[in-house]
Amino acid sequence: MNIMKGRALRATATAAMLAVFGAPVVAEELFYVSGAVGNAVENFKTLVKPWEEATGNTVTLVPMPASTTDQFGQYRLWLAAGATDIDLYQTDVIWAPQLADHFVDLTEVAKDLAPTHFPSIIQSQTVNGKLVALPIFTDAPALYYRTDLLEKHGKTPPKTWAELAETAKFIQDAERAEGAADLWGFVWQGNAYEGLTCNALEWVKSFGGGQIVEPDGTISINNENAVAALEAAKSWVGTISPDGVLAYQEEEARGVWQTGNAVFMRNWPYAYGLGNGDDSAVKGKFAVTTLPVGKEGDTSAATLGGWNVAVSKYSTKQEAAISLAMYLAGPEAQKQRAIAESNLPTIIALYDDADIAAAQPIIPQWKDVFLNAVPRPSAPTLGKYNEVSAKFWSAVHNTLSGQGSAAENLELLEVELTDIKGSAW
Ligand code: GLC
């Protein structure tokens, strides 16, 4: 290409980007903190490159532990101390009410971008009229299953949790007898952290046991269906799931799955693209469906997850940080992330994008699943959500590891939650 013409084209593209993201007065060096699973850290450089080129600013990702619970603990300390060296935080969908005071209100700057996102997701990041973070992707888990193994053993994807346990056991036993000594039936996230709250909410809700604390603030967890759900899950540990599942987070489950050592896995969509990667033992050998139900007639439940970007009130580089937040929540970055990381976009139009559908078929397939996903009770419990969730996952973890029965632990949990609630959430 003619060099002058190439330059002119680049200059036009840059001018267009500057019009959107604002011209820098001085080039800033930003710091973005984020937990990371899968290929998120590697992809970040590629993701932000167009923004860096257009604005002249640079951004460094400071990787945090994979566990959202660990991130939350650390971020809360930094924010409480008014840390000025972190400009942007990648925030979990459940954190908005608890961290709202520390972030810049993005309502005005995002007034044209926000209406292109699903309204419920924007709503989840709005606290007392303040838009505290911009959505970058949403999340709703899938039941991953091995098409090759189900077909070989004449099984179909399970509709109920009991069917899942039965099929998992059948294939596990048969395959082990043929020499696949390391194969397990079902892997999921059983560590004592926020991820277990997500898994257990799905069991409870799909058994008709409610959602721990209902949207009106009522504590509902101590009920028979919830007890039955936790008992079912306990019966998996050491039979279709390794004992070690009680220490698994997302990446440990994906590790077992992606080396070909599980029939079923519960995980978020990020595991889809990686599972089809060239280094994956299950490439082309799996499909996804919705999570099972307690009994026929019950509804499948997927916990609503997702991540956002928030600008710290204590950042000394707010203008550049806001520009980056707008870019990360915008269509170009969301599309790149969808294709490279199989993350679900929050921009409505991207569900009709042919490139995304071709690269990651789970994305259009998962639109209705996340639109019907069950929120964790972070809205009704306000600033107390983290404590509520920690009590819940502890009660579940105790049950799964044989410390007390489900009935005993849920009865105790009800007392603890009532105490945390006091006269009002
Ligand atoms: C996923 C979800 C997030 C959730 C976490 C639990 O990252 O997007 O919302 O809290 O998993 O481990």
Q: What's this, in brief?
A:
The chain is α/β, with parallel strands linked by helices. The protein has helices at 3-21, 40-55, 68-80, 96-99, 119-124, 147-152, 161-177, 194-206, 224-236, 250-258, 270-275, 318-328, 331-341, 354-359, 362-365, 367-371, 378-381, 385-400, 406-421, and strands at residues 29-35, 58-64, 88-92, 126-127, 130-131, 134-139, 142-146, 184-187, 262-267, 286-289, 305-311.
Question: Overview of this structure, please?
Answer:
- The chain has 425 residues and is α/β, with parallel strands linked by helices.
- It folds into two domains: 3-140 and 304-373, Periplasmic binding protein-like II (D-Maltodextrin-Binding Protein, domain 2), CATH 3.40.190.10; 142-303 and 377-421, 3-Layer(aba) Sandwich (D-Maltodextrin-Binding Protein, domain 2).
- Helices cover 46% and strands 13% of the residues.
- A five-stranded mixed beta sheet has the order 2-1-3-11-6, sandwiched between helices. The protein has a four-stranded mixed beta sheet with strand order 8-9-7-10, sandwiched between helices.
- Helix 1 packs across helix 2, helix 2 (40-55) runs antiparallel to helix 13 (331-341) and helix 18 packs antiparallel against helix 19 (406-421).
- It is globular, with a radius of gyration of 22 Å.
- Mean pLDDT is 94; it is low at 1-11.
- The structure holds alpha-D-glucopyranose.
